């Protein structure tokens, strides 16, 4: 069998197995789900006050859609880089290196895992949001399909970024903490936390190059009424551009992540992994 095809199949299987195992660990499950529940609580709180913007749009709906995009970014980047840093330390990456096209399967597996987890977490935000947050929901049944492909494609675009950053982290405890700061800056520059039009022109240009802006735009297109589209920079949801940009980032990211991981794996050896374990025991 073709080694690439075999690696893809193994990656898909690995990702699904890791996804199902996540539900057996209360600590891991809490780490994935506390943020969606937090944003849901904030949106319901804003909704109960009846707060709206100058155009009469409910604030709670905007908060929940922005929170959904923010969560996906944190899941796709910081969670992946943390897992990668930990598995580099415990020798998982070294074992993947020993298998033909093993790093391809590893990358695909992580992407599948976070994509499946993102759909699950989004369901926990969307279903209660439909019931308790005004202005948040599907106007058409096709909006549900839009949300699904935006989430999956967005995670496939973000997971390789997390893998690339994680490949440079040698201390999972300190490295992850330092990596969160640039992730937050990217989120802020992409209009998820502040109105995009209030930012300097150069920030808007940079933000539109990155996948985070388009992920947020796609989620807003799926979950907010069409009247909100007039508030966007182009005055529309630009769904073809959303799909195109996220797809390009996903494909380029997959190739780049494999290249970076291969370079990192060449430097790994049993002695380096053992030294990392001993250093981790000292830190513990």
UniProtKB/TrEMBL annotation:
Membrane topology: Multi-pass membrane protein
Record's keyword terms, sorted: Membrane, Transmembrane, Transmembrane helix
Residue span(s) of domain ABC-2 type transporter transmembrane: 66-257
Entry keyword annotation includes Disulfide bond: no
One Pfam family hit: ABC2_membrane_3
Organism superkingdom: Bacteria
Residues annotated as transmembrane: 29-47, 59-85, 112-133, 145-169, 175-195, 202-222, 242-261
InterPro entries: ABC2_TM, Nod_factor_ABC_transporter
Entry's localization field: Membrane
Main location: membrane
Protein's name according to its UniProt entry: ABC-2 type transport system permease protein
Species lineage: Bacteria, Bacillati, Actinomycetota, Actinomycetes, Streptosporangiales
